[in-house]
Amino acid sequence: MHELGIAQSIVEAVLDAVDGPRITRLELQIGKLSGVVADALRFCFDLVTEGTALQGARLDIVEVPGRGDCRACGASFELEDLIVLCACGSADVQIGSGQELRIAAVDVE
After folding, report:
1. Contact, 41 vs 75, CB < 8 A?
2. Which residues does the annotation say bind Ni(2+) (predicted)?
3. What is the pTM of this model?
4. Residues annotated as binding site for Zn(2+)?
5. pLDDT tens profile 55-72
6. What are residue 68's DSSP bridge partners?
7. Is 85 within the bounds of a domain?
8. Which residues are annotated as a binding site?
9. Which among 19, 24, 26, 56 is least surrounded, fewest beta carbons within 10 Å?
10. What local confidence, expressed as pLDDT, does residue 19 receive?
11. DSSP SS3 for 59
12. Per the annotation, where are the binding residues for Ni(2+)?
């Protein structure tokens, strides 16, 4: 479960960047194509925040849809998974979004 390592890295990054007594909310943007399982990340987040300024913080996860642009025909379309194939039959697709894992907002007390 790589979500544990991801949760630890997120917590470390937030604690390094934010000098506050208590963090009440953290918002993450997670791309649909990132391979991160949101429920597993929530579970791990609760474990790794114990005893830190993030303990008890609300974790809001915003899913970023996958988008692709076909280099063959120029079509832009939504991607559901990493099996990338345009309706025109081309696999020459540039992934534009959906692979993100970003800390979008942090609320402090």
Report:
1. no
2. 2
3. 0.84
4. 70, 73, 86, 88
5. 999 999 999 999 999 999
6. 77, 95
7. no
8. 2, 70, 73, 86, 88
9. 19
10. 81
11. strand
12. 2
